[in-house]
């Protein structure tokens, strides 16, 4: 496998009730209950960009607001490999998967601040608050292990 990993950040955005924001991929609009249709906000780190800056940029781009504060950073870079059928197609065909730095953030805004309609080509078409324990079952199979790690390691911020 010669292709590199794409450097990326990801956000577990917790509301005041300890629920986490998940969003439905716009390219999978019929995936209401299906694994892989819902995910956490995430995105690439620009060359030379600090991951703590990138996470706020990605929130702004993907959900229309960065009204949040970092409450924890996962100590490890978490990686996943794309399944063989997606290598050379997904992620612009340039990467084998992603190497991700994950952050837990406290949402400081109101639900009305979350705006998926600000981007002319939005990544997501719906969002909701979910229990942290739901994350693994929402994830596409090749991301499920990362979502299990996140659900375990950030459980202290979640609703019980």
Structural write-up:
Accelerates the degradation of transcripts by removing pyrophosphate from the 5'-end of triphosphorylated RNA, leading to a more labile monophosphorylated state that can stimulate subsequent ribonuclease cleavage. The structure is a single chain. The protein has helices at residues 51-63, 135-138, 144-153; strands spanning 5-14, 20-25, 38-39, 42-44, 68-73, 78-81, 97-107, 124-130. The model has no long low-confidence stretch (mean pLDDT 92). It has 3 helices and 8 strands. It has one domain: Nucleoside Triphosphate Pyrophosphohydrolase. With 160 residues, it is α+β, with helices and mostly antiparallel strands. The N and C termini lie far apart (41 Å).
In short:
The protein has a single domain, classed as Nucleoside Triphosphate Pyrophosphohydrolase (Alpha-Beta Complex), CATH 3.90.79.10.
CATH superfamily: Nucleoside Triphosphate Pyrophosphohydrolase
Strand content is 25-35%
* Average residue-wise pLDDT: 92
Low-confidence stretches: none
Biggest pleated-sheet summary: 5 strands, mixed
CATH architecture: Alpha-Beta Complex
- Total number of helical segments? 3
Per CATH, what is the topology?
Nucleoside Triphosphate Pyrophosphohydrolase
Overall tally of domains: 1
In terms of structural class, how would the helical and strand content be classed? alpha+beta
Give the C-level CATH assignment: Alpha Beta
Helix content: 10-25%
- Total number of strands: 8
**CA-based gyration radius:** 15 Å
Task: State the separation between the terminal residues, measured CA to CA.
Answer: 41 Å
Order of helices and strands, N to C? EEEEHEEEEHH
């Amino acid at each position: 496998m010669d292709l590199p990993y794409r450097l990326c950040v990801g956000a577990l955005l917790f509301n005041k009730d300890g629920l986490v924001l998940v969003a439905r991929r716009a390219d999978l609009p019929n995936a209401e209950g299906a694994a892989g249709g819902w995910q956490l906000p995430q995105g690439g780190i620009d060359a030379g960009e600090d991951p703590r800056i990138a996470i706020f940029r990605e929130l702004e781009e993907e959900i229309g607001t960065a009204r949040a504060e970092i409450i924890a950073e996962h100590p490890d870079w978490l990686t996943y490999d794309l399944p063989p059928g997606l290598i050379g197609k997904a992620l612009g065909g340039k990467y084998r998967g992603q190497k991700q730095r994950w952050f837990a953030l406290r949402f400081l805004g109101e639900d009305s601040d979350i705006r998926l309609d600000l981007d002319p080509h939005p990544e997501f078409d719906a969002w909701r608050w979910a229990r942290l324990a739901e994350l693994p079952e929402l994830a596409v199979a090749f991301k499920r292990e990362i979502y299990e790690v996140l659900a375990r390691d950030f459980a202290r911020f979640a609703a019980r």
